[in-house]
């Protein structure tokens, strides 16, 4: 198990090592140990991750100074709970599971109002107090979609993403939507953290599982995204943007058939600002929006993954708002999509997702969830959504 100062998780030189050892000692003294307890999914690897790799010295300092309890984003509906006391939360959760039945309201009030990092402290305190995993005990008490949300909330961000990706490829068939939603929307650092968790959990790489569960150009796009090699700078090369737009046009609209590799080369590698310029140049050259051309030239999962990449580059919260809308519109609800987005984005950008949802569909996300779900499942989703 790696603690805050364990050298193998950090890239450090010379004098930095001394500071790391000091931070490690202080963290252990003030927090006993800054490790995260395990859900049943996490337990085998003894792997913990709140921050992507390699973690910087500045991030180590932040872990100590903040007590690793702050939210992982700054546009979420879930924020750090004031006056947080892990021991008190453990008492409430133990009380909620005592006797016949379960006090689901108490479970919601505690877990849906704490950051991921605070929930890790609760898990640690629970294990120290009870000698059992909180996730295992809750799993024995809860059922259905409500259980899925609660167990998802107990995982760290990369562990949850890895868990969702594995589930998407379990058994017969593959839930391509999960692969697309996650891999098209995560940063390089987030993808590196996911792949590290995945191989430690399952003994083989995420790429190996994707290779065995997908095929063709769709597989190649996913593998490209897995390399976490996108340029994340801000530089826009005007001449290259024009060339990229021409290359995409000549690979699609301007020819019989489609050279999908050209699309992959541009859409999976260039930085966001550059690609936004490419999209403008493409409109000038082709007279069409890049989205329309992708729809005309491709189909199925390949179309969906390229569209997801373009939409995330333009406006990630709008992409998630659309995915949420489609998960609930019409008859029935695609609960897997609804749960995944609500759990994963609650403390990152849910405020922006709600704004985009209202702008696009004229109704609040809150009202959609309220009308499409029921019971404790509805209550916990509404708590994550916020008013």
UniProtKB/TrEMBL annotation:
A Pfam family the protein falls into = Annexin
- Keyword field: Acetylation, Annexin, Calcium, Calcium/phospholipid-binding, Cytoplasmic vesicle, Membrane, Phosphoprotein, Repeat
Recorded GO molecular functions are:
calcium ion binding; calcium-dependent phospholipid binding; phosphatidylserine binding
What PROSITE patterns does the entry give?
ANNEXIN_1, ANNEXIN_2
* Lineage top rank: taxon: Eukaryota
Q: What is the annotated localization of this protein?
A: Zymogen granule membrane
Question: Gene3D superfamilies under this entry?
Answer: Annexin
Q: What is its main location?
A: membrane
Q: Which InterPro entries match?
A: Annexin (IPR001464), Annexin_repeat (IPR018502), Annexin_repeat_CS (IPR018252), Annexin_sf (IPR037104), ANX4 (IPR002391)
Residues of the signal peptide: none
Topology with regard to the membrane?
A: Peripheral membrane protein
Q: Which GO terms describe its cellular component?
A: nucleus; plasma membrane; zymogen granule membrane
Q: What is said about the domains?
A: A pair of annexin repeats may form one binding site for calcium and phospholipid.
To which protein family does this belong? Belongs to the annexin family.
What protein name does the entry list? Answer: Annexin
Q: Which organism is it from?
A: Coregonus suidteri
Q: What are the top taxonomic ranks of the organism?
A: Eukaryota, Metazoa, Chordata, Craniata, Vertebrata
């Amino acid at each position: 198990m790696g603690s805050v100062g364990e050298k193998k998780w950090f890239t450090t030189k010379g004098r930095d090592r001394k500071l790391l050892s000091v931070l490690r000692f202080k963290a252990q003294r003030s927090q006993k140990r800054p490790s995260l307890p395990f859900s049943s999914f996490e337990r085998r690897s003894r792997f913990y991750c709140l921050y992507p790799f390699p973690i910087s010295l500045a991030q180590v300092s932040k872990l100590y100074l903040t007590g690793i309890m702050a939210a992982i984003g700054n546009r979420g509906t879930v924020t750090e709970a004031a006056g947080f006391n892990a021991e008190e939360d453990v008492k409430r959760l133990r009380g909620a599971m005592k006797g016949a039945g379960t006090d689901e309201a108490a479970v919601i009030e505690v877990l849906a109002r704490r950051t991921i990092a605070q929930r890790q402290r609760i898990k640690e305190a629970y294990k120290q107090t009870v000698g059992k995993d909180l996730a295992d005990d809750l799993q024995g008490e809860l059922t259905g979609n409500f259980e899925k949300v609660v167990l998802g909330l107990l995982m760290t961000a990369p562990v949850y993403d890895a868990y969702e990706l594995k589930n998407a490829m379990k058994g017969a068939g593959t839930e391509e939507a999960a692969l697309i939603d996650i891999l098209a929307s995560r940063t390089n650092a987030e993808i590196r953290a996911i792949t590290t968790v995945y191989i430690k959990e399952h003994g083989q790489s995420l790429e190996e599982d994707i290779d065995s569960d997908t095929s063709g150009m769709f597989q190649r796009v996913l593998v490209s995204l897995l390399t976490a090699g996108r340029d994340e700078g801000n530089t826009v090369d005007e001449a290259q943007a024009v060339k990229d737009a021409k290359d995409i046009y000549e690979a699609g609209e301007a020819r019989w058939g489609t050279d999908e590799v050209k699309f992959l080369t541009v859409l999976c590698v260039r930085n966001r600002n550059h690609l936004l310029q490419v999209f403008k140049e493409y409109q000038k050259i082709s007279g069409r929006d890049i989205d329309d051309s992708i729809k005309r030239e491709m189909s199925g999962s390949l179309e969906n993954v390229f569209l997801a990449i373009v939409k995330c580059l333009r406006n990630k919260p709008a992409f998630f708002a659309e995915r949420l809308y489609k998960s609930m519109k019409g008859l029935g609800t695609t609960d897997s999509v609804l749960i995944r987005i609500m759990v994963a984005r609650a403390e990152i950008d849910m405020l922006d997702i709600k704004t985009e949802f209202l702008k696009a569909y004229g109704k609040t996300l809150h009202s959609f969830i309220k009308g499409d779900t029921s019971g404790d499942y509805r209550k916990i989703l509404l708590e994550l959504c916020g008013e």
